[in-house]
Amino acid sequence: MPQLNPNPWFFIMLISWLTFSLIIQPKLLSFVTMNPPTSKPSTIPTPTPWTWPWT
């Protein structure tokens, strides 16, 4: 069965994985986020009661 022959496919997978991890990933990780996360105090929102028109 040719699907079990890893001869060309393993090399292609290895080269693509190395390309991603050594070239593309450092470029993507170097970007600075425009909206960095901030630490906000956790507050529980108080719901306002809904006024139904038929009551």
TrEMBL record:
It comes from the Eukaryota. It is found in: Mitochondrion membrane. GO terms for molecular function: proton transmembrane transporter activity. Keywords: ATP synthesis, CF(0), Hydrogen ion transport, Ion transport, Membrane, Mitochondrion, Transmembrane, Transmembrane helix, Transport. The keyword Transport applies. One of its GO terms (biological process) is proton motive force-driven ATP synthesis. The chain crosses the membrane at residues 6-24. Belongs to the ATPase protein 8 family. PANTHER family: ATP SYNTHASE PROTEIN 8. This is ATP synthase complex subunit 8.
